[in-house]
Amino acid sequence: MADADLDVIIRKLARQQHKSLTAAVKARRARYLALAAKAKDTAGKQRFREMAKQAFEEGTAAARRLQMSADNAADSYARAMRRTADTLATRPLAAPKKASAKTARSKPAKSSKS
């Protein structure tokens, strides 16, 4: 994974998070539906069914936002790296600077007098 580009890693991590988030959303919806099945009155059943529906909608919306955000970040990184590579490819290489005579000489060590 050391050679992989970061945009690929960002997308991979986002897929993993998306899977775990959708599993949690489905579990929450199942919990509310189980509570609806156990409810004694019809108003309670309807209330829990609505809660299950809302939990599922909000959870899937959050998962979509997470996925879009990760895609945007990965695309932005890939675009920046392409731009950097293009810039460096067109720019001539700078010659390394030679050390001046003053900085090349080493300074004598100070002796401590006691």
Topology, number of strands: 0
Tally of domains: 1
Largest sheet: none
**Uncertain spans, ≥5 residues at pLDDT below 50?**
none
Mean pLDDT: 85
Helicity level: over 70%
The SSE order reads HHH
Explain what this protein looks like in three dimensions.
The chain contains three helices and no strands. With 114 residues, the chain is mainly α. The chain has one domain. Helix 1 packs antiparallel against helix 2.
Keywords for this entry:
mainly alpha; elongated; 75% helix
Quick structural summary:
The chain is mainly alpha-helical and 114 residues long.
Q: What topology emerges from the helices and strands here?
A:
Layout: H1 6-38, H2 42-90, H3 101-104
Helix pairs in contact: 1-2
